Amino acid sequence: MSNAAENPCIICVAITGSLPTKENNPAVPISISEQIESTHEAFEAGASIAHCHVRDDDGKPTSDPERFARLKEGLQKHCPGLIIQLSTGGRSGAGQARGGMLSLRPDMASLSVGSNNFPTLVYENPPDLVDWLAGEMRKYDVKPEIEAFDLGHIVQAARMQQDGRLKGPLYVQFVMGVKNAMPADKPIFDFYIETLKRLAPDAQWCAAGIGPEQIKVNEWSIAAGGHTRTGLEDNVRLGRDRLAPSNAALVKRAVALCDQYHRPVATWRQARAILGLEKAA
């Protein structure tokens, strides 16, 4: 690993997600205007990627391309240079509707390459849908962020790069702490890094911890030289008895960890260079 001071850390902020509500935490941004304002604060705090879901007028998850377009336009206006990553997650729609916004040509989009259990349901990502989503991302020049909920997803992503279904170099996010999926376990985390380096040596990686595991996985990632994700989608608390006041507060907590481990926080320009997204925002 290169010297920490020469290895900027990309901070991704997951601003809303498909589960947190105002009842969970009043700071969760639901409307497009709230999302833009919250992301702007997080961007100024140090985030260079925004992972985005949208909600309908009733606050329910949706894959509505028109809402994604409004959010994307607002973020480009108020956060120039920010890397916009749209979610193709399953809670917001079914089948190919999950990728209906890819024609908007965001910088990035999330891509789960396999299925796994969630707390109360199966997160279904059948092979034909994964291949279609990957094909749409190639078509519209959208860089996938591979969301790895299990070791097999890392293996599958490397296989898809090798056979041309995914453009390299890969960007893989380890998602740890989802109930019934992979726990936030340090030996497993270390093995994920080792496996990815072996199967896709040119890959970049990130990690996200869910709920109370967020700060722990943030620290593991930053200390190990990777990138990290924070935000109200993954965790609505700063501590056991304290709600997070904003996405920006969670970003600032990750920035403090970067300082602790002598990792500079990547600017949006550095993040774009690291990920091969040099195109102008």
Give a written overview of the molecule.
There is one protein chain. The protein is of the alpha/beta class. It has one domain (8-275): TIM Barrel. 36% of the residues lie in helices and 18% in strands. It is built from eight helices and 14 strands. It has helices at residues 32-45, 65-78, 127-139, 151-162, 186-199, 214-224, 247-260, 268-275, and strands at 11-14, 49-52, 54-55, 61-62, 83-86, 108-111, 116-117, 122-123, 143-148, 171-176, 204-209, 227-230, 237-239, 242-243. Strands 1-2-5-6-9-10-11-12 form an eight-stranded parallel β-barrel, surrounded by eight helices. Strand 1 (11-14), helix 1 (32-45) and strand 2 form a beta-alpha-beta unit. 49% of the residues are buried. The mean pLDDT is 96.
- pLDDT averaged over residues: 96
Tally of contiguous helical segments: 8
H/E series:
EHEEEHEEEEHEHEHEHEEEHH
Distance between the termini: 30 Å
Domain count, please report it: 1
Strand order of the largest sheet: 1-2-5-6-9-10-11-12
Q: What is the radius of gyration?
A: 17 Å
CATH architect. name: Alpha-Beta Barrel
What is the total tally of β strands? 14
Question: So what's the CATH class?
Answer: Alpha Beta
Considering the protein shown, what is the CATH homologous superfamily? Aldolase class I
Q: What profile does the largest beta sheet have? A: 8 strands, parallel, barrel
Give me the secondary-structure category: alpha/beta
**Uncertain stretches:** none
What proportion strand?
Answer: 15-25%
CATH overall fold name:
TIM Barrel
Helix coverage percent: 25-40%
Described by the principal axes of the CA atoms, the overall outline is globular
